[in-house]
Amino acid sequence: MRRKPLSTLLFAVAIFLVFAFQLSRKAFFYGGDLPFPSPSALLTSHSANSVAHYALHEAAFPENLAHWSRHVSSILDPIPTVSSLLLPDWEVLLISSIDAPLSSPDSLRGLLCVFQNNDTSPAKFSGSLEFNSPAMFKCLMPESVRRLRPYFQPLLTNSPEKVFSSPMPELIRWTFFAYEALETEDDVVLFVKGVNHRQGSNRPPTGLKCVFGDGDKAVRTAVTSSVQEVFRCRHPNLTVQEDHHQKFKITLEILDGKGRSVLVPSVAYYSPRRRITGGETEAKSTICACTMVYNVGKFLKEWVMYYSKIGVEKFILYDNGSDDEISAVVKELNKEGYNIEIVFWIWPKTQEAGFSHSVEYSKRSCKWMLFMDVDEFIFSPSWLNSLNPSKEMLKSLLPAEKSRVGMVTIMCNDYGPSDRISNPAEGVTQGYNCRRRIEERHKSIVLLEAVDESLLNVIHHFQLRTEFRSRQMRTEEAVVNHYKYQAWPEFRLKFRRRVSAYVLDWTNSGNPTSKDRAPGLGNSAVEPPEWPRKFCEVRDDRLRLLTQRWFGLQTAEGYRMTWQ
């Protein structure tokens, strides 16, 4: 009988441990956002006048790599890693300190990520950031590591014999970090995820500081604007050396007014000389086009060739981590005389922020910006009798100089699969000709100087300065053909990711009536019955016939479009 209390206690402890383990697994299962303490929770967990420094751990130059491995065989093995980030779908992004353009391609192949339990996965070169071109790599976190916590930065190596050893910094979570900085003549624009959580609910600038540099030598400046993931702050008073590549880490400090604060983890850098030197200013284009892309290489030629013929002079592509042939396609098009620039924008669910970045980034080279996806094509019914396209066509849709119209919005017609079961080789304008009856959504052409200083936008349209207004065009004047619901093999790829911070992924069951969802599709990438015939209410061949006239060619292989 005396053993009963003890056995009862042991049973209760066992139950508690099982419960705690299951709760822990649920908390850390990465089906969506990884858990991370809210800024308010971090603030309350530290005493007054203390700073919780969760910002980027500087690493790792070759002479300090001895503790990384028992078998350091060369100066680039292991590869020095400045920081690492845990992305959705268990991807790990590692930002190295090696210069991608100066590295031979062979040295970037056959690399491995060695994780904290010495499990490994292949590392793939992913691109390079704009400043100083640090090479970036991605690897998949093995199943065996996902059960551990905390998650530590893996070792990046070209030798399978490397062994992980402590100490290593924890992985930064993609839901709470500073990821990009852009210097203007007047201020600094800092992009931070996880501080302003909901659209329309923003922390006041008075409770924030921009922090330049590390430790006691860090310089803080006032934040003047806090909207979505965009924060503007004043330039710091820093000693600028002659070195053109001088840079300072930059992050955001969150204050609670009681002497407590938290520094947001950061992979962003500030360069005073980027603002001072500025580079040569190219001739300003009247109309540019900006879009965010992911694996759209096979669609790009049609989009670029069409828009360049009707008036777009420059294309700026924000690449959200493509691993298809898009770079080769852009290189080929540029050789043919098109003006296309790729901005490496790997950060997840940051489309609004990317478009905000494009406004400041493009002001020197573009007057008007067309914000369209690569499956969206503007046309005007007034063009239907034109034998050839003209570079004045888009300009004809713009307002008069003195009208104070800062944004033109154009309604969209959403096209369905049009009985297609595979991607049309002749292009989307030729392959899809059946659409829904009701126009939904709109896209925009924006005067960059008219955009509000906050850079607030909802995907394809912006808040304007008070002295400007917007104008919505009638469908008789212009319309956007949006080839939204394509053949199933193409459409299902949209489940790979949703790039908007404020749009739920289709795999999420929340808000089932949202216009961002495909009607009747549900939450899984399973082809619905009769998909090829869905969303077909009106046969509309206007743009199909027009582009045939403008871009069709009779060749020895038969009738082909210019972009084929």
TrEMBL record:
It is found in: Membrane. CDD domains: Glyco_tranf_GTA_type. Signal peptide: none annotated. GO terms for cellular component: cytoplasm; membrane. InterPro entries: Glyco_transf_92 (IPR008166), Nucleotide-diphossugar_trans (IPR029044). One of its GO terms (molecular function) is glycosyltransferase activity. It comes from the Eukaryota. Its EC number is 2.4.1.-. Keywords: Glycosyltransferase, Membrane, Transferase, Transmembrane, Transmembrane helix. It is a single-pass membrane protein. It is an enzyme of class 2 (transferase). Belongs to the glycosyltransferase 92 family. This is Glycosyltransferase family 92 protein.
